[in-house]
Amino acid sequence: MGLDLPSGGHLTHGYYTSGGKKISATSIYFESLPYKVSQETGFIDYDKLEEKALDFRPKLIICGGSAYPRDWDYARFRSIADKCGAMLLCDMAHISGLVAAQEAGNPFDYCDLVTTTSHKSLRGPRAGMIIYRKGPKPPKKGQPEGALYDYEDRVNFSVFPSLQGGPHNHQIAALAVALKQVMTPGFKAYAKQVKANAVAVGNYLMNKGYKLVTSGTENHLVLWDLRPIGLTGNKVEKVCDLCNITINKNAVYGDSSALSPGGVRIGTPAMTSRGLKEADFEQIGEFLHQSINITLSIQKEYGKLLKDFNKGLAGNKDMENLKAEVEKFSAKFDMLGFDVATMKYQ
Fold it and tell me: What GO terms in the biological process aspect are recorded for it (predicted)?
């Protein structure tokens, strides 16, 4: 069981469409059942999750997602997993940097396995980690005395030789560097600022009258529901992309199609790493507001069909002006890793 994709879950957590089409290998090769957020609040409905789990009796429950802006109740997940006899896995790929800096809930106290990529809020190379329990299990009724966790051999064999080829030593070295950076006070400050910046841009958009899923955020992202203003995520993503603003179209709960989703996801780690603070993200919020007005204007003139909408993108003066503003603003903040003044090729 994993969080449903339109509820903020990840494609790899057993997703299949409302029509039953199996999209991910985890739904093709395994029997899966999603749990969902409340249609009213956007928060995970833990009571319905427990009810489903006790009926479905999954072997594995996954907590973690790719577009859920709130923290996770790991203790409740552990209680539900124990009641239905399931293993509990946390996929903390998107929030692992916050977890490492103790700016998000700690899944390690409750989960049997924890997985993460290392190139998102953790700011490392494109790689991943699998972390598992080992040693003696806590005493439990009906369990043999001195029972040990057996994840180590199973995980290692599943990775190699079952699924993976030889190790990529450059990624291992880069991951070691990233984890060393995580131990510095600067990384803690970065993680705190990531959350503060997400709150800042989220509040700015809400003050403009826009709807955010769960009406805010507790982590590094905001999920913006565009349906109340009659727009889709793919149109707004396209306009923003042409104005040098990187966001991504994203499903929101209640969506029926992932190809034409009702929202966009906005993340703060990358620009936080370039030194932006709350006031800067309010300016980003203003750029996003301008992009919405442009999108609405194009849709009004050219129509809602994407093929018609795209006709209004070429040579759009408002988009050209916004792009210039964005470039002027972003040029004030250095890119990490090199000094422009010393570059050989300008």
Answer: glycine biosynthetic process from serine; tetrahydrofolate interconversion
Helices 74-84 + 46-56 axis angle, to 10: 20
DSSP state, 21?
Answer: -
Identify the sign of the CA torsion 72, 89, 25, 29. negative
What pTM was estimated for this model as a whole?
Answer: 0.94
Specify the CATH number for 185-330; select among 3.20.20.80, 3.40.50.920, 3.30.70.2740, 3.90.1150.10.
3.90.1150.10
Burial class (CB in 10 A: 0-12, 13-18, 19+), 31: exposed
- Domain coordinates in residue numbering, the chain: 2-182, 185-330
* Residuewise pLDDT in 10s, the chain (346 residues): 999 999 999 999 999 888 889 988 999 999 999 999 999 999 999 999 999 999 999 999 999 999 999 999 999 999 999 999 999 999 999 999 999 999 999 999 999 999 999 999 999 999 999 999 999 998 888 888 889 999 999 999 999 999 888 889 999 999 999 999 999 999 999 999 999 999 999 999 999 999 999 999 999 999 999 999 999 999 999 999 999 999 999 999 988 776 789 999 999 999 999 999 999 999 999 999 999 999 999 999 999 999 999 999 999 999 999 999 999 999 999 888 777 777 777 5
